Amino acid sequence: MPMRIRLSMHGRAHKRFFQLVAVNQRARRDAKPAEVLGIYNPHLEPGQDHKTIEWSVDRIRYWLHVGAVPSKSAVKLLELGNILKPGSIYHPKPRRAAPEEPPAPTLAEIRERVTATAEETPESVTTTAEDK
Asked: Residue ranges of region Disordered (predicted)?
């Protein structure tokens, strides 16, 4: 059964908090998790100067060790908490850009090429009115 570490949203409107959970990857969004690994509260309470993150590091490492794949948002939080190193295998890598094709030549460039090739033709091939 493939497992995923992801955030589960709880709370009321404008006061959401998230639980970091290990859940079956194929389960529905609101399914009961296999284990709750921690809590993330992005709101500042009065008198607080930082957001609240509480988690069980040992259990998170266990689930990563047995093959659970964290979601993108979970990866960001785990990197903030130094559980995952930035640039780890879970960190999304930027795609390489496709090689760019040279732009199509403009009409002026085509005319320059034609006149340049016309000037390079040997004189013996070109005929003038004097030669006739």
From this structure: 89-132
Angle, CA 32 vertex, CA 9 and CA 88 arms, to 5°? 65
Q: How far is CA 106 from the centre of its chain?
A: 36
User: Does pLDDT of 90 surpass 80?
Assistant: no
Within 49-124, residue ranges assigned H as helices are 57-65, 72-80, 107-120
Task: Write the DSSP assignment of 68-88 as a string of letters.
Answer: PEEPHHHHHHHHHTTSS-TT-
| Structural domains for the chain | 3-80 (3.30.1320.10)
Q: How confident is the model at residue 101 (pLDDT cuts 50, 70, 90)?
A: confident
Tokens representing 42 are 């992005």
What value does the mean pLDDT of the chain take?
A: 84
Strands 15-24 and 3-12: antiparallel
* Number of residues in the chain: 132
Determine the pLDDT at residue 19: 92
Sheet strands side by side (includes 35-41): 52-55, 35-41, 15-24, 3-12, 69-70
